[in-house]
Fold:
Amino acid sequence: MFATTLIGRFVIVMAALGCLAPMPLRADPADMLLLNGRIVTLDDTSSVKEALAITGDRISATGSDDQMRKLAGADTTIIDLGGRTVIPGLIDSHIHLIRAGFRYADEVGWNGTTSIADALERLRSAALRAKPGAWLIVAGGWTPRQFTESRRPTEAEIAAVASDHPVYVQLFYGSVLINAMGREMLGIKSEDDLPSSAKFDRNGDGTANGWIVGPGAAIISLYSRLPKPQLPEAIDGTRRYMRQLSQFGLTGVIDPGGHNLAPEDYAALVQLWRERALPLRVVYSIFAPRPGKELEDFQTYTRFLPMDTGDDLLRFNGIGECVTWGMYNNENPTDADKERFYRVALWAATQGMTLTVHWNNDRSVHHLLDVLERVNRELPIAKLRWSIAHLHDASDASLQRMKALGVGWLMQDGLYFSAPSYIAERGPAQMSRTPPIVSALRLALPVGGGTDANRVMIPSPFVSLRWMLDGRTVDGIATRGAQEIPSREEALRLYTEGSAWFAHDESRRGRLRPGMLADLAVLSEDYFNVPLLRIAQIESLMTMVGGKIVYAAGPFSNLEPKH
Ligand SMILES: [Zn+2]
Structure:
């Protein structure tokens, strides 16, 4: 009797600690049951279940409708999924959410527009809604190739729909159109008022056409002249941006900071977190603030913000994607640049800190890998979940070096927009293995799915998944060969447990299994069986984070949380 009680207590304590998961606690009825669905668990056997039970913020059981019904109590919410597909909540492993969100109230997105007329219509309706004189900003996330006209809009076209507003339209990191009112407000009267190395783009006859062209640094510097929103607008923008992500079934992001993002720009996100109003989990890193002061700045910031500070909804995850400016978009770093990077990276390793690095081209990534290997000889980094972002053309040799270091690869769909210029530069043979998704999977390299939105890409995970599966660009050009096309399940795993790995979270999210966080999305169409082309149009009809419904639409709209 005594022994039984002790064992009973032990079971209760262990269950409370979560140690006995996945056993459901039969005594406690579930808070919520999702019945009559096609629940894609992404567990080890890729099992698909009919129903799922949620208790607190966790999945407490999965199984058949009949099995789950036994877990119902008087207060259990029961949702009939109507046969719909449920997937683990999607996680974008490299998206500039914080930067996009805090300015989103001023932003006009051209996501999904297919003609200049469409895009101008978005601008016209934004102009009607905006306060007089307010900036209208298209910060990126579009390409002329998505338009049937296959060109940029002209200044006259922009003026025709938004004459009473300053307008700023950025195209990737190469050109910007600022209309006459905007140029006046920014004090741009002549080319001398532009950042050095930027210039007015000119027509064949030498007349300026309204566009400004220049290297990335000049474009970033132009953007930084735009006035910043006040906190209430920044909060509103962040809320609206995140809602768009919930609509795509995203339940988590990994944010790598970025240009044009100062410490005070995090205030909106932090405020929403304090109000417990974040509809998705944000894991973020710090982008090196000042060139030449990287180590000093990282040391100062992290004295107040050690690794892992935060909770399940907002958590600090180390440094990057700019670790040092000398090794950022620099394909020919000097020995001094490499030494500086080495010192910062070694310091990060001693602090047990995660690190992520932006690197574009395989031809120069040996500079980075050499330094990472040098750090690894001093202090093994495998447990720290370091990563390289982008590297679309990673060679087998580079992937193998990453694998040996335990360094993962953050892969996005940037080439969905920019493949044609890539093909022109590198040729179709290279393009056909870019990005080498299957090669990376074959090596069992950690790979995270993502988009790199909002300047170079749009945030839709379903566009990114479709790109992984067919390698077709926004204007329908076939690029990647069959040898680098993953299966639908493999692609989805990159966007769930694959991304979760980079947040040290793969044991808690990314699968729908008892004991894991109840982060999931009920899809508008069955990702696994819908024709490939339709995958890009899939949306979530209900998104849940930690068992809480954060977004609901269509048949579930009565479950939509109050805003
Ligand atoms: Zn980057």
Remarks:
- Residues 1-22 have pLDDT under 50 and may be disordered.
